[in-house]
Target: NAD(+)/NADH kinase
Amino acid sequence: MNPIAGFGGMLALHGTDALDPARYGEAVSAGHAARRLVRALERFTAVGGEASIVAAPGVLGADALAEASVAHSALAGLEPASLTTRADTIAAARRLAGESVDAILFAGGDGTATDLAEALGETVPVVGVPSGVKMHSEVFSRSPEAAGRLLADFAAGRASVSTAEVLDVGAEGETGVVGALRVPRSREALQGAKTVSRSQAAEIVGHAIAQNLVRAADQATTWIVGPGTTTGAVGEALGFTPTLRGVDVRHPDGTVELDVTEERLHQIVSVAPEPLLALGVVGGQGFLLGRGNQELSARVIAAIGADRIRILATEDKVGALFPPVLLIDSDPAGDGAQHPLLGYRRVHTGPRQSTVLKVVDAAA
Model:
């Protein structure tokens, strides 16, 4: 487990590589990856999965399992550094492989998957619990619960194993293949690898959708622009250059805030009289929330209101979804309420075209 995975999402950090070391302890205490790892193992047990669990030591896994009373043994003689790095992840993965484990369950994001690809190559099968800020790779299950069910299928011999690509964002901000891992496959679907449409036609349609939405909105609208090129066209239509990987805000007076944190977003939408959110779909995966836009938390979405969210996706992106649903992978609300965006939602596929798709919980 990457103990600080996912912490940077609400802080508008695009991963934890740039995390201030002074906040390392806070990130570990936040326990985002730990909660999701435990959720996966709880579902594994609930569906009848049986296995002897060996955990990487300390904050790399064993601490989280001990706190959740999950039976396990911890690797000895491999204590991680006080501030864990990718070297600790690689060392733990190689040590687990040396113990002849049948599979490795890991919690993290694309960076963690990249480390595992370096450590393991295509040897030990892995099941990824999506816990990072970005998860473009197809080695991840759609949710922690799906990871638990997939692991149970593998343990029972109901899953085949094949190669899957590991994708990560490079120095130039472009997503590319950086390695490969072996993954189980069964009725429990892994997420697809993120795809990017760069066709001129798709770009033209995206700008037409954006122009139409901006023209139809009231001038008093506070615009929240989610990540992605399709939603980025809304920012351009509003007269600013969007960050594309972050969440931006354009106020009615024309001022712009770029790469806004979850806390600041909640402050803004709680007082803005007419906020609108432009929200895109991750190509090849169908995710609306939970992949690179953790700033858009359940409380932010609730404050905006589901009827004030504009979902944008070109027809080719919608047509590539299988099954044709949109997914949300977020931590459960503290009050037990379902996510406010679940249900059937209109998707803008052209300047005067739309379709209706069902938004579902990826954990279901």
Q: What stands out?
A: The chain has a mean pLDDT of 90.
